[in-house]
Amino acid sequence: MSWGPVRGPSCGPSRWPTCRPACPAARVLVGGRVRGGPWLLRRVRGRRVPRPRRPGSAAFTADGKLVWAHVRSTESWPDEEWLVLDALDGTVLGRAGTGTVGSASVTCAPAHGPHMGLSVGEGDEDSPALWSSWDGRRLTFERIDGVLIQDISPSGRRILCTDPGQWALYLHESSDGREAARLDAADSVPPVPGHDMARWGYEGACPYEYGAVVCTEEDAGTPRHWLVNPRTMSLRGQIAYPVPAHGGPRPAGPGPWWTFGESGARVHFWSLAEEYRAGPSQMASSSTSS
């Protein structure tokens, strides 16, 4: 079963977009790629923070007022810490040791609220994800071992994850980090010829409460994309695109998700048709913006 058709031209930059915000926080952040790029923190309150070899990550909150940065500690190598920064002037408002020693990390910002997600790649099956909260004075977080965060539901109540082995999708409650449901790839998606089983991609988006877009065969030139109901963690069907969608689906906030075009030089934005966003659908439409 395919969920389609989808329509619309693509648009996007001529090269991979970079995180260079047009605001005073640009003095705090240096250019990095959208996903897992160089450690972005360069200078905090006049103190230079050396850029280490291993990449970390950073992200703005939805309102643009704060920046969360996962960085190597300058006090106790090789420990790592999470910083909350004032996006206007780079003041460190809060910090907490993460207890991780990762080779890379990806920060995932929810659509609203004083929270942030962080996936840390430590090179093993127990690599953790952290789900944090900021009350204006103190940074705290829940540690969820063995998962990588893909996206947060629009309400902020659910966290969509997969595991480093790509065996299953997991739904965790944001209130306490507990696992609420899972969807095994082997039991729900038929493998492609030449493979013993399907595996979920690391990329995924949850643009609707009833609709998450995930993929299998992420390393293939044209992976298969699937629509999943996060409420029940059930497969709704395969998504059909009018033009090739390369790589996995990436979050673009509540409503849309985005993919790369065939050459990697264009970005496609997609969304489900209005009448199908609250439940199972057989049609999808795309919307684009430059």
What does this structure look like?
The chain has 290 residues and is mostly beta strands. It has two domains: 157 residues, Lipocalin (Beta Barrel), CATH 2.40.128; 130 residues, no CATH class. It contains one helix and 23 strands. The strands form six sheets. Strands 1-19-18-17-16 form a five-stranded mixed sheet, with no helix packed on it. Strand 16 and strand 17 form a beta hairpin. The longest helix has 4 residues. It is globular, with a radius of gyration of 19 Å. The protein starts with a strand and ends with a strand. The N terminus and C terminus are likely disordered.
List strands and helices in order, with pairings.
Layout: E1 2-3, E2 43-44, E3 47-48, E4 57-60, E5 66-72, E6 80-86, E7 92-97, E8 104-108, E9 115-121, E10 128-134, E11 139-145, E12 148-152, E13 158-162, E14 168-173, E15 179-184, H1 185-188, E16 200-208, E17 211-216, E18 224-229, E19 234-239, E20 246-251, E21 257-260, E22 267-272, E23 284-286
Parallel strand pairs: 1-19
Antiparallel strand pairs: 2-3, 4-5, 5-6, 6-7, 8-9, 9-10, 10-11, 12-13, 13-14, 14-15, 16-17, 17-18, 18-19, 20-21, 21-22, 22-23
Structural class based on helices, strands and sheet pairing:
mainly beta
Record the strand order, biggest sheet: 1-19-18-17-16
What's the architecture of the largest domain, going by CATH?
Answer: Beta Barrel
Report the biggest beta sheet as strand number plus sense, adding barrel if it closes: 5 strands, mixed
